[in-house]
């Protein structure tokens, strides 16, 4: 299977959205090495097993052929991404830390949520709830390139936004919120 970095053409917003979608589902998420950097690969197996670009020189692995490494010449190495708070690597760290801090994701159960309850424009919205004994989280994903206005209704209008893949928390006013493009937002409420 080709890496997400190649399938999504290195689009960082899409890579963050994809990571949010699979890490915030039920079960134990699996991150194939390099996904957190946006590494790419070709169809040949050896191109999927190239060394992780550390970027510090001394730790670089050089066993792979130059031909197999062509997909990741522009992938920012770990050393560079660690310095950038908005990098894909630091996003993965923030996302995993968030996931592991919430019972609704660690031990909760997945349930599809009807997007039509939130908006008439649901063509780019994917949403679900994760529910544990203590709390319930609503995960909203906008896969589109434009913000989508949502009406949270009486079920979620008092819930608190606890995560946004953009880092900025969207403003909720009178039970309404604009879900940013290519973004995941998580609402949380106690039970």
Short recap of the structure:
This protein has 191 residues and is α+β, with helices and mostly antiparallel strands.
Number of helices: 6
Strand numbers in spatial order across the main sheet: 1-2-3-7-5
Main sheet specs: 5 strands, antiparallel
Low-confidence stretches at least 5 residues in length (pLDDT < 50)? none
Helix content: 10-25%
Explain this structure.
The protein is an alpha+beta fold and 191 residues long. The protein has helices spanning 4-7, 12-23, 78-83, 88-101, 103-106, 153-156; strands at 109-112, 125-131, 135-142, 148-151, 160-164, 176-179, 183-190. It has a five-stranded antiparallel β-sheet. Strands 4-6 form a two-stranded antiparallel sheet. The chain is elongated and about 60 Å long. The chain starts with a helix and ends with a strand. The model has no long low-confidence stretch (mean pLDDT 89).
